[in-house]
Design goal:
Low-confidence stretches: 1-21
CATH superfamily of the largest domain: Mog1/PsbP, alpha/beta/alpha sandwich
CATH architecture of the largest domain: 3-Layer(aba) Sandwich
Mean pLDDT: 92
CATH class of the largest domain: Alpha Beta
Strand content: 25-35%
Shape: elongated
Number of strands: 15
Order of helices and strands: HEHHEEEEHHHEEEEHEEEEEHE
Distance between the termini: 39 Å
Helix content: 25-40%
Structural class: alpha+beta
């Protein structure tokens, strides 16, 4: 998923208000990570529907078990009423021999029927032509939906952020961050900070613990040899072994190297950055889960700054929790160094 592409799409859809934008819009509804596809049965059962299910059914990157990128709900057009229209993510599949369908198209809108909504319309003269445009531009949909779902959680956190942690992180690390209200600072070492968030969720009649954690650490930037996946992972293992112990004696957090992480180089906040999605484990214990890491080259301070997060949810799907982590991490902003 290309973050730069997603950012461009967000700019584009932000300028494409729906016809409901002239009045006060209701808040969006629907489960996080859910896409409602509105299409007649004959279109849904064609190659066009197969293409959408294949795109959204791709495995979410680097999780310990299969979870789809998005959960898809098919809806017949006659059922697309006022109950469904405010849904957070909607895709309309439109096939017909009309003037506006001669050239296959996929158009993105924001805020058509509800605030914060992503509304997409795909048109073509035939199901085959529709499937082709969906396949050609499918990655745009995936990137946009993923970025938007992560951003939505950060927007929720921003309504009531942890201002104490934000102030301390800013003073220490020069990072304007966004931290959940119920988080706490678990470790404050000279070279490493750990922001911990403990949750409880009900399942099967019992309460189960969930953990989301965030790390902030840095190292001097002395060589381009530091700009790569191997160095990012080695540095991560160095600090977690030192500062993140497990529940049993001799246990500590480490990167799970048996599953190859997803790695991407990108521009973040105007700086060269390295993004990693991978799995963590507890050495000498049985805990594990996904992590998301963002390392930025801070030229002004001569350092590599890393903000990352992880999720631990053994009784639940991991996708929503690591997507929330990514939304928080990506809301970080590097504050320019003061002139000497």
């Amino acid at each position: 998923m290309t973050c730069a592409l997603a950012a461009c799409l967000l700019v584009m859809v932000a300028s494409c208000e729906g016809d409901g934008a002239r009045v006060a819009l209701p808040g969006k509804v629907g489960a996080a990570g859910e896409l409602v596809v509105v299409a007649p049965t004959e279109v849904w059962s064609s190659a066009a529907g197969d293409t959408i299910q294949s795109l959204m059914g791709q495995p979410y990157p680097v999780l310990p078990q299969y979870e789809p990128l998005m959960d898809v709900v098919h809806l017949e057009p006659e059922l697309f009423d006022r109950f469904w229209k405010p849904h957070r993510n909607i895709l309309i599949l439109d096939v017909g021999d009309r003037v506006d369908t001669q050239e296959p198209s996929l158009t993105f809108y924001r805020n058509k029927y509800s605030r914060g909504q992503i509304y997409m319309v795909a048109k073509a003269r035939t199901p085959a032509a529709l499937a082709e445009v969906l396949a050609t531009r499918g990655q745009e949909m995936v990137s946009l939906l993923h970025a938007e779902e992560a951003r939505r959680f950060a927007d929720i956190v921003a309504l009531s952020p942890n201002e104490v942690i934000a102030r301390e992180v800013l003073e220490k690390w020069g990072v304007q961050g966004l931290w959940p209200k119920d988080a706490r600072l678990a470790v404050k070492a000279e070279d490493f900070w750990w922001v911990d968030r403990q949750l409880t969720r009900l399942k099967g009649g019992d309460n189960h613990d969930i953990q989301q954690g965030f790390f902030v650490h840095s190292e001097p930037y002395v060589s381009a040899d530091q700009l790569g996946l191997d160095h990012v992972l080695d540095r991560r293992d160095e600090v977690t072994r030192k500062h993140v112990p497990g529940p049993t004696k001799g246990s500590y957090m480490a990167t799970e190297r048996r599953f190859f992480p997803a790695y991407e180089e990108l521009e973040f906040d105007g700086h060269f950055a390295m993004e990693v999605r991978g799995l963590w484990k507890m050495e000498n214990d049985f805990m594990g889960g996904p992590f998301y890491s963002l390392t930025v080259v801070d030229e002004a301070r001569g350092r590599l700054l890393t903000v990352e997060g992880y999720a631990y949810a053994p009784y639940f799907d991991k996708r929503p929790y690591i997507r929330e982590v990514e939304g928080v991490v990506r809301r970080s902003t590097l504050i320019e160094a003061s002139a000497p």
